[in-house]
């Protein structure tokens, strides 16, 4: 048989656990958002580097083709 004190204690415990889960949820959301932004930035940076490498190699190849045509 539960007393009034036990019931109050259980309800307070549930309230605290709910608050704690909300705080943890917000923290996880912020961490997830930060990881998402950082991941997108790194992915864009990698694409940019690959694009620059391909562009310069194509440009070098184009110069060689033009030199061979002019000679």
From TrEMBL:
Q: Which UniProt keywords apply?
A: Membrane, Transmembrane, Transmembrane helix
Give the residue spans that cross the bilayer: 33-57
| Superkingdom of origin | Bacteria
Q: What is this protein called?
A: Uncharacterized protein
Per the UniProt entry, what species is this protein from, by scientific name?
Kordia algicida OT-1
């Amino acid at each position: 048989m539960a007393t009034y004190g036990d019931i109050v204690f259980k309800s307070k415990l549930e309230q605290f656990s709910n608050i704690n889960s909300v705080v943890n949820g917000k923290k996880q959301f912020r961490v997830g958002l930060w990881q998402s932004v950082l991941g997108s930035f790194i992915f864009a940076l990698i694409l940019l580097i690959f694009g620059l490498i391909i562009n310069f190699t194509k440009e070098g190849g184009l110069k060689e083709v033009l030199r061979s045509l002019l000679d």
